[in-house]
Amino acid sequence: MATTLESVDVVTVGVGWTGGIIAAECAKEGLKVVGLERGRERGTEDFSMVHDEYRYAVRYELMQDLSKETLTFRNNRKQRALPMRQLGSFLLGEGLGGSGTHWNGQTWRFLPYDFEIKTMTDKKYGANKLSADYLIQDWGITYDELEPYFDRFEKTVGISGEDKNPFWGKRSSDFPTPPMKKTPILQRFEKAATDLGYSPFMMPSANLSEAYENPDGQKINACQYCGFCERFGCEYGAKTSPEITVVPTAKETGNYEVRFNSNVVEVMKEGDKVTGVKYFDTVTFEEFIQPANVVVLTSYVMNNAKLLMISGIGQQYDPETGKGTLGKNYAYQILPGATGFFDEQMNTFMGAGALGMTIDDFNGDTFDHGDLDFIHGASLSSTQTGSRPILSNPTPPGTPSWGAEFKKASIENFTRTLSVGGQGASMPHKENYLSLDGTYKDVYGVPLLQLTYNFTDQDRALQSYITEKAAGIVKEMGAKTVAASGGITDYDIVPYQTTHNTGGTIMGADPANSVVNNFLQHWDAENLFVIGAGNFAHNGGYNPTGTVGALAYRCAEGIIRYSREGGSLV
Fold first, then answer.
1. What does the mean pLDDT of the chain come to?
2. Which of 3, 22, 305, 505 is least buried, going by the fewest C-beta atoms within 10 A?
3. Alpha-carbon span 479 to 462, nearest angstrom
4. Nearest CA to 376 among 201, 141, 115?
5. Residue 169 carries which DSSP code?
């Protein structure tokens, strides 16, 4: 029997970047907010002097426990979907801060082209540039409309960067802090890219170049370049994360409560409104109902979509008929690139998650696609994130994968290897989608989410083109051997590739082709908001966090307005 608790103004499901931003903004306006977090409490003090690659990077200390809840996967509808038993292709965060604790800190604004991709592509290349199997659509908001929210997120985070990219959208103000150190490795990339006629610039970073106090009064420290960022929490409080910024801001108002070990299993709905959520205490297995005037889904892409499906809110996408929007437009990313092996040693084992230089000469529509059989592209970067000894064993092509020769080559090349990698944009395809599995359930008796996904011809063409560009830069950097990424065939759920999953709860201007409007308000329930990378109508050539942060501030503005006025916000 579920215990019904006292109603609150706002309840969020998940306490990462989106949940923290919503809580901070709403609590500052006097709204009573409860954040339900399925994981445990943690903070900077928990990561003090813990440079344990095995614990965090191999055994995934900060990630979701798949023995309790996972997802099932198949490449196409003819296959039987099977559970993902071990974290592989992507890593699902859990605990206070979510993925915002174990991220690298690379913080981008999607390009103006991304938000109006359908309109701009059709105008320049015609409506048949890609086949009708690709579900390309505009986002229902423009870059210029979203720019103030980008600016606000970057000032909250303290992003270190430089406005030297000729291809990205116009900024209303400069970066809050200067760019990170331009190391000898990055200078090598800069010279090679410049000599090839490209436009390199320092990567926008949430590993801060200097100490910073944000507009809410939260203090963030300067990066120590220890090289333990991705999959780790920062022991210095220098990699900006929710638990050192927006969560403390929310708590300081006195209007915010976080409940840990609280796994939400259903959004309660009556008529055209939601009434609250049902959740389990993951320690005692007690069941609770938390009533709320506004419910905000602020968990990861997969969990937001699953909760809507479990709760029967919205129409499930059907690839056979094309009807429905929930689960539609799931997109991943591809990783073109090349690795170079050099004669001289370099300081590759030090660095930071977002210490890097990038070119956008082949991202978005910054280059002509007229004679190409794909759209969009990739950012190309050289990053110095810290090569750790367990997972970093680069060897030249032809080296045996074990034995004395492998060991010798691994030791020789550990500090003599540099890579140029791309984040390739992924376009949505009618056969790539999220749904509920009809066979498997989680520990709470709830059906697992089912992922149906495979790479497409668009992905393969983009991979080949961008890889060639990356290999050219690596060669220009002076590598004695260049190993380019191979072509891609079928997608596999292992090994790790990227955690940049998008889609499933997409935003738009029309309920016929989207789940939420441009305030992230659900079309079918006016007091339900859904915020995260699931709102992206396609994936881009960048990390998603900066764009997610901007959307979260947009969403918070909408929630506050709704709490005062009610009704649809568009």
1. 97
2. 3
3. 24
4. 115
5. P
Residues 506 and 328: their CA atoms lie apart, in Å, by 8
Strand ranges for 271-373 from DSSP E: 273-281, 287-297, 337-341, 351-359
Establish whether 500 is a catalytic residue.
yes
Kindly calculate the radius of gyration of the chain based on its CA atoms and give it in whole angstroms. 23
Torsion of CA 192, 195, 198, 202, to 10 degrees: 50
Give bridge partners of residue 419 from the DSSP assignment: 339
Please state, in angstroms and as integers, the Cα–Cα distance from residue 496 to each residue in 86, 186, 389, following that order.
11, 25, 17
The active-site residue, picked from 102, 376, 500, 538, is 500
Note the pLDDT tens digit of each residue in 228-253.
999 999 999 999 999 999 999 999 99
Beta-carbon count within 10 A of 29 CB: 16
CA dihedral 142, 148, 152, 158 (to 10 degrees): 80
Alpha-carbon distance 397 to 517, whole Å?
A: 49
- Residue-wise pLDDT for 104-125, tens only, equals 999 999 999 999 999 999 999 9
Strand-pairing partners, residue 257, are: 34
How many Cβ atoms sit within 10 Å of the Cβ of residue 394? Answer: 20
pTM metric for this prediction: 0.97
**In terms of CATH, what superfamily is 3-43+82-565?**
FAD/NAD(P)-binding domain (3.50.50.60)
Paired strand residues for 522: 516
Helix or strand holding residue 441 (H, E): strand 433-441
The whole-angstrom separation of Cα 447 and Cα 433 is 16
pLDDT value of residue 48: 81
